[in-house]
Amino acid sequence: MTVSRDPAPRTGPEPPHGGTVPAPDSGPRRPAGEAVPVPDSDLERQLARLGGSWTWLLGSAVATLVPGILALVWPEGTLHVLAVIIGLYLLVTGAFRFVAAFAREPGDRLTGLLVAVLYVLAGVLCLRNPLQTIAALSLITGAVWLVTGMVTAYTALTARGLPHRGLVLGVAALAVVAGIVVLALPTESARALTRLLGLWLVLLGVAELGLALALRSALRRARSGLPPGTPAAA
């Protein structure tokens, strides 16, 4: 098609046949059928910010320490009381892990959410029937710890840029050992099971407490621009 030239130069694009001016190019076009990424909502960003903070991990450590201490200082409690304590621990920890899952990469988020759901379901099972047998309570708690430790170890090995990877692997190994011990060692009384679970809860809580403090140190170094390994100011 031949286009006539005007004396004055045109500043805009030449309209095609039909008089319709094409819209300005807004960037590279996506191939047909490719999904357009949807940005995270404000709620997801807030959950990610909260779950990635060291204070949230500190709260999770306290939620593990408190029932462990209660079980150790009150070993005469009945199986009903122990089931309630363990059930509440599992529910609260599941809530902490649910929020913490949003601080992970989108590809690893589903794994964290599944672990949180596992905690909540196990807590509901303990609270729904507190008068269950010692074997059932041991099975629920040991299975949760075993699965959680394995998932945490996998995440620590595959996550990129994870601070204090060795400490996270140590917490994962401790959870795996706790699950194996609770599942393998038969307990004949509620008192023995209370001491066993209380001991592992305290050990796991102390490990999570150390991880929370290490994360606080790493976040402070990142904000101040200090190289890794440099102690952060208190």
From TrEMBL:
<feature type="transmembrane region" description="Helical">
    <location>
        <begin position="110"/>
        <end position="128"/>
    </location>
</feature>
<protein>
    <recommendedName>
        <fullName>Integral membrane protein</fullName>
    </recommendedName>
</protein>
<feature type="transmembrane region" description="Helical">
    <location>
        <begin position="166"/>
        <end position="185"/>
    </location>
</feature>
<keyword id="KW-0812">Transmembrane</keyword>
<dbReference type="GO" id="GO:0005886">
    <property type="term" value="C:plasma membrane"/>
</dbReference>
<feature type="transmembrane region" description="Helical">
    <location>
        <begin position="197"/>
        <end position="215"/>
    </location>
</feature>
<feature type="transmembrane region" description="Helical">
    <location>
        <begin position="54"/>
        <end position="74"/>
    </location>
</feature>
<dbReference type="InterPro" id="IPR052712">
    <property type="entry name" value="Acid_resist_chaperone_HdeD"/>
</dbReference>
<feature type="region of interest" description="Disordered">
    <location>
        <begin position="1"/>
        <end position="38"/>
    </location>
</feature>
<feature type="transmembrane region" description="Helical">
    <location>
        <begin position="134"/>
        <end position="154"/>
    </location>
</feature>
<dbReference type="InterPro" id="IPR005325">
    <property type="entry name" value="DUF308_memb"/>
</dbReference>
<feature type="transmembrane region" description="Helical">
    <location>
        <begin position="80"/>
        <end position="103"/>
    </location>
</feature>
<dbReference type="Pfam" id="PF03729">
    <property type="entry name" value="DUF308"/>
</dbReference>
<keyword id="KW-0472">Membrane</keyword>
<keyword id="KW-1133">Transmembrane helix</keyword>
